[in-house]
Write a structure and sequence with these properties.
alpha/beta, 6-stranded parallel beta sheet, globular, binds 3-methylbut-3-enyl trihydrogen diphosphate, binds magnesium ion, ditrans,polycis-undecaprenyl-diphosphate synthase [(2E,6E)-farnesyl-diphosphate specific] activity, metal-binding, magnesium ion binding, peptidoglycan synthesis
């Protein structure tokens, strides 16, 4: 409701979310952490529906960081199972809603079955031109920058790029989400005020919104509050506000 009151021009086009707090949500209920992750998956679906409804151009969800491998073996394998399950069970709804799915991150570390499903879902939804849904899985902002640097080095070695030609716009095209709009807004749930190696380069000028709400409790009202907060911000990008002389 709140969103409709604002001019569509000011709406954020690309939103990224650090979906944190599943474990604590389960813990508060005396349940195993996987119970929180399953509730987190439902919450992610709600967020996707919100993004579709409000016609955002892109939604990027942080699902598994490159550091999350350090969790207990059982939790990691439960998360992989859940990832596989969600790919299998959401394909129909992605197609129905014209959503283009992309996984960002180093998928070569996942088991072959999961890699196969990732590629299959990406291929099937490739031509959709509604919401761009990016799932960051085995993603790290530092990894993303390094893999971009490796591509630059490769081009220089092959002679297709001179070192003096390297600039921000060339580099931008070699990191994740190169073809999309810049990230306008980053939301983090779960009460922590940090980026945890999520997008680094891509959020240089994003607005940030933090909430104590644990991810499984994230809903359309809180999403609307984040957007309302964004709409009140003055994005100056280093300039000064226009003043009347
Ligand atoms: C975020 O919730 C989901 C993943 C990192 C996979 P957490 O699992 O980090 O939940 P908390 O922070 O322990 O509550
Ligand atoms: C960030 O949450 C990663 C994801 C939401 C996937 P973490 O729970 O892993 O972050 P830290 O460890 O508290 O910084
Ligand atoms: Mg956490």
């Amino acid at each position: 409701m709140l969103l409709e009151q604002h001019n569509i021009i000011n709406q954020p086009r690309h939103i990224a979310i650090i979906m944190d707090g599943n474990g604590r949500w389960a813990n508060n209920r005396g349940k195993m952490r996987i119970f929180g992750h399953k509730a987190g998956l439902e919450s992610a679906k709600r967020a996707v529906n919100f993004a579709i409804k409000h016609r955002f151009n892109a939604l990027t969800l942080y699902a598994f960081s490159s550091e999350n491998w350090n969790r207990p073996k059982q939790e990691v394998s439960d998360l992989m199972e859940l990832f596989l399950y969600s790919l299998n069970h959401t394909i129909h709804s992605l197609q129905k809603n014209n959503v283009r799915l992309k996984i960002i991150g180093d998928i070569s570390q996942f088991n072959l079955r999961l890699q196969k499903y990732i590629k299959k879902t990406e291929q099937l939804t490739h031509k959709n031109n509604g919401l761009n849904l990016n799932i960051a899985a085995n993603y790290g902002g530092r990894w993303d920058i390094i893999q971009g640097v490796k591509k630059i080095v490769d081009k220089v070695q092959k002679g297709s790029l001179y070192p003096e030609q390297i600039n921000e716009s060339i580099f931008c095209k070699l990191i994740s989400m190169n073809e999309l709009m810049p990230v306008d807004l980053v939301i983090r749930t779960g009460g922590e005020y940090r980026i945890s190696n999520f997008l680094l380069w891509q959020i240089a000028y994003s607005e940030l919104f933090f909430t104590d709400v644990l991810w499984p409790d994230f809903n359309h009202d809180i999403f609307s509050s984040a957007i309302s907060s964004f709409l009140k911000r003055k994005r100056r990008f280093g300039h000064i506000e226009q003043t009347v002389m």
